[in-house]
Design brief:
This protein is α+β, with helices and mostly antiparallel strands and 176 residues long. It has 2 domains: 63 residues, no CATH class; 98 residues, Glutaredoxin, CATH 3.40.30.10. The chain is 36% helix and 24% strand. The protein has 6 helices and 9 strands. The chain has a 4-stranded mixed sheet. Strands 3-4-5 form a 3-stranded antiparallel sheet. Strands 1-2 form a two-stranded antiparallel ribbon. Helix 2 crosses helix 4. The longest helix is centred in the middle third of the chain and has 11 residues.
């Protein structure tokens, strides 16, 4: 069974000679890897290796697989989750005080939200500041728009604006 960690799907750990469920006949190994060629060339790539493919054909097969740029991954996370928090740690175990304060403010609104632990997702941690044009963590996104970091979120919670913002989408029929 594939597992999900911080918004990135990792394939099953399959030993050579076994077949993954859902993989085509003859496929021995399916995995996801991050290829690093430089800061702007990072991509998330699914590589499928066939059982009877020689190394020259394997290279062609691997390069033909669809690569997804890390910026595309971030965009999909932001657009696919009405409320998403990029933070250090998890809501149950924040790994910095700013993340802890932001989670507390967000949880006080009573709305469900997605999160990404940037400490366990180094590619997202390295590239989100560029994507968002915001240098620090945590980062709260609502309806595809960057709200801000800890100070802004806490100020909005104090004034009541945060509850209005996160509740507005649900009142309009937004996703949970």
């Amino acid at each position: 069974m594939a597992g999900v960690a911080s918004g990135i799907v990792f394939g099953p750990n399959i030993s050579a000679g076994s077949k993954s469920s859902g993989a085509p006949d003859g496929v021995k190994y399916v995995t996801s890897v991050v290829l690093r060629a430089g800061p702007l060339l990072q991509c998330h790539c699914r590589i499928t290796i066939g059982a009877a493919i020689n190394p020259k054909q394997w290279r062609v097969t691997a390069t033909m697989e669809q690569c997804m740029d890390i910026m595309e991954t971030i965009r999909e996370q932001v657009e696919g989750n009405r409320i998403i928090l990029y933070m250090k740690g998890s809501p149950n175990q924040p790994q910095c005080g700013f993340s802890a304060k932001t989670v507390q403010a967000l949880m006080s609104c009573g709305e469900k939200f997605a999160y990404v632990d940037v400490l366990s997702s180094p590619d997202i941690r390295a590239n989100l500041p560029t994507y968002a044009n915001w240098p620090t963590f945590p980062q709260l996104w609502v309806d595809g728009e960057l709200v801000g970091g800890c100070d802004i979120v806490c100020d909005m919670e104090t004034s009541g604006e945060l509850k209005e913002l996160v509740s507005a989408g649900e009142a309009e029929g937004g996703q949970e």
